[in-house]
Amino acid sequence: MYVHVKKEKYMNMILHKAETRGHANHGWLNSYHTFSFAGYHNTERVHFGALRVLNDDTVAAGMGFGSHPHDNMEIISIPLSGDLKHKDSMGNEAVIKQGDVQVMSAGTGIHHSEMNANKDQEVKFLQIWVFPNKRNVQPRYGQVTLDTSNMKNNLLQVVSPDQSDEGVWIHQDAWFSMGNLEKGFSASYKLNKNGNGVYAFVTAGNVTINNQELNNRDGLGITETDELTVTATTDATVLLMEVPMTIH
Question: What pLDDT is attached to residue 65?
Answer without folding.
Answer: 94
